[in-house]
Amino acid sequence: MDLTDRLAAVAALYEAHRNAPFPSRWRGADVAGFDMIMLDSYPSGCISVWLAQVGVLDNWRWNILAEYEQQLLRVVPELNDYGREYYQRLLDMAELVLEADSPPSSA
After folding, report:
1. Which of 33, 41, 55, 61 is least surrounded by CB atoms within 10 angstroms?
2. How far apart are CA 71 and CA 41, in angstroms?
3. pLDDT at 106
4. Residue 102 has what pLDDT?
5. Which pLDDT tens digit goes with each residue over 52-85?
6. Could you give the CA distance from residue 2 to residue 72 in angstroms, rounded to a whole number?
7. Please, what is the end-to-end C-alpha distance for the chain in angstroms?
8. 102 vs 71: which has the higher pLDDT
């Protein structure tokens, strides 16, 4: 998938996510030790920046997104119905962004 297609895919998912109501059951809740609101807001912010910068993410946000991707991988299987759909969309976007962008250099 080239960057243009990846941007379009993430933009479509992001628009759907922005228009989706937050699952009220998870407001103020933790799953697998993770705050569900933070698990939504941090990845969403990083993805928003990646879209605004046309496929570029700074090292700080890349690391945050990579950390939250791992948390999403642990949480999503524990959810059901709408909560799973809502957070799976975030995970899908995180994976698309992280696969497109280079990891931060160790320098």
Report:
1. 33
2. 13
3. 41
4. 62
5. 999 999 999 999 999 999 999 999 999 989 999 9
6. 25
7. 28
8. 71
29 vs 69, residue with greater confidence: 69
Give the ranges where the chain is alpha helix by DSSP (H).
3-19, 36-52, 59-75, 81-100
CB 74 within 8 Å of CB 34? yes
* Residue indicated by tokens 């690391």: 63
Q: What is the pTM of this model?
A: 0.91
Q: What distance in Å separates the CA atoms of residue 27 and residue 5, rounded to the nearest whole number? A: 33
* CA–CA dist 91, 80 (Å, integer): 15
The one-letter amino acid code at 70 reads Q
- Residue 9 buriedness (CB in 10 A; 0-12 / 13-18 / 19+): middle
